[in-house]
Specification:
The complex is a heterodimer of chains A (364) and B (290).
Chain A lengths: L3 E9 L10 E10 L4 E5 L6 H9 L6 E6 L2 E2 L5 H4 L1 E4 L11 H11 L4 H15 L14 H13 L6 E5 L7 H18 L2 E6 L2 H7 L2 E6 L2 E6 L1 H6 L4 H6 L6 E4 L1 E9 L2 E9 L6 E5 L4 E4 L4 E2 L1 E7 L3 E8 L2 E8 L10 E4 L5 E4 L2 E3 L11
Helix pairs in contact in A: 3-4, 3-5, 4-5
Chain B lengths: L13 H22 L1 E3 L5 E3 L3 H7 L2 H31 L5 H15 L2 H11 L6 H8 L10 H29 L3 H9 L4 H29 L3 H6 L11 H11 L3 H34 L1
Helix pairs in contact in B: 1-12, 2-12, 3-7, 3-9, 4-7, 7-9, 9-12, 11-12
Classes of the chains: A alpha+beta (364), B mainly alpha (290).
Chain lengths: 364, 290
Amino acid sequence: MARITLSNLAHSYFANPKGEADYALKEMDHVWEDGGAYALLGSSGCGKTTLLNIISGLVRPSQGRVLFGDRDVTDAATSDRNIAQVFQFPVVYDTMTVRDNLAFPLRNRGMDAAYVASRVDQIARMIGMEAELGRKARGLTADAKQKISLGRGMVREDVNAILFDEPLTVIDPHMKWELRTQLKSLHREFGHTMIYVTHDQTEALTFADRVVVMYDGRVVQMGTPQDLFDTPEHTFVGYFIGSPGMNLLDASVEGNRATVAGVSLPLGAAYDAPQGRVQIGIRPEFVSPTAAGGLPVTIRRIEDVGRHRIVRADFNGTEINAVVGEGTTLSADMTRLAFAPERIGVYANDWRVAPQGSRTGRAA
Amino acid sequence: MDKTPNQKAWFLILPVLVLVAFSAVVPLMTVVNYSVQDTFGDNEFFWAGLEWFEEMLGSDRLWNALGRQVMFSAIILAIQVPLGIFIALNMPKKGVWASVCLVLMSLPLLIPFNVVGTIWQIFGRVDIGLLGHTLAALGLDYNYTNDAFDAWATIIVMDVWHWTSLIALLCYAGLQSIPQAYYQAAKIDQASRWKVFRYIELPKMRGVLLIAVLLRFMDSFMIYTEPFVVTGGGPGNATTFLSIDLVKMAVGQFDLGPAAAFSIMYFLVILLVSWVFYTVMTNLDKEEAR
């Protein structure tokens, strides 16, 4: 087990990348703590899998170093890194039995038979396939095959890290919960560093202690689920996380007031005049319908999703959502939306601007 | 909903029946017809029953030709299948060189059979052929026209040259269909090169390999043109395979009755072997799935 350090790392699939656009991964410096459960979250094509393959050694980065602990493994082969990886689609060895499949990584490393047998039994119990151990893997269903892949990923105890590349895509929803819970308890039990790639925020937020959000080849934020909710560092984090995502409105900001299409709104803090495209962002949870004050809007519809209601409104062509608790009464004269000032974030060119007197934030 | 019986529908399959009758049934029945009759010319035929079949089954000539034929097919399969797999494994997976390789590999398959025969007939000649002359210059006693071993070697090398590409190309197609994740998983699992072949590549190639072996078996079992052009079945009867013997009998000696009986047995043997082969392979498949 080891801490993983990505130093000055970048990758392009072109031999001679011309500009930043040619890079699948833009330059980054990150440290992944030993024993952490990380989720790598982002939409398709943002570089998640590339980053994962660089860590496991399947792809060599065009620049920068990868360190496991203090050891530089940038040029080390996959087999030297002692990493386990589970892929998006099930990879099983068709002609082998389930038992041989699970034992394969151990036997290839020359473990003794008794250890292999006990370890295989343990893993089989965990993935619920004890009954099928003697069967050939060929005729099994896709989710059974994926369980075998997961099992093969977890069968070795001494790995530096276990990487999951959207492993639950092909699994039934009820099984998803079960397996995710098992992964989580496995993490607690053995303390392996786990990196879990997904584009499903629920999966990311339930699995990980720390969520790494990627966008367009960049890590835009690395933090706890709470951090991502409270202070998104990038507008992408704002609307990708949360359901519905953060409301973003073009605005101009001066001191502690923002002006949106002529309406002046109070902010929770004062800002130095931000440059570029300035937006304010607020989560729907902190927007409330009101009869006076706030922004005048057209309410399009109200969706009742059980525990709360979502008010979908329109403001000059921009959609604004508000989440309203079950107990709140909505009346016909509530045609304005009020924002909780201390929950409004200010963004310049998509990056969060730190208020005066604060050291967080990036674009400032 | 009730279905109205409409017997006129039978007319719809009439074109196919006519076509199959002319392409397969009529010629085949002509042969069957010859095989049970005797003729002394003038288009007069006498019933001979199974006489020709008995005569053929009792003749050393047919058994010797069959023996040579089985040996030939066995040798070329034993060479071409492993060699084809080996080539497929070592061909570039993508890029310009993959295309270049594919074109080069296809070339022998595009040459007409008698041209292949002619190429090797000349190539192997001791007086003017590059191969024959070079071997002779190296002090080797090589002459395919009067040495049975040399004749066999020439024909086998020619067939390997001509047909290994087919197996290689089929296997290559099978290999290309393996997702990259399999190789990546094998790396993660620390599988050796041999294990990658044994547990990933070979199982994925099995389907195409079955077809390749079946095709090569049938083709080699019916081989005629190339050995006919190169050796004419000689020296002596050394390279007289079944087809060559059959043509000698039917067209050379004009023994239509025995030749027809021979043809039918020949056909049945190919049918039988192919069927056995196919059944065994598909059963293996089912077994695996269990």
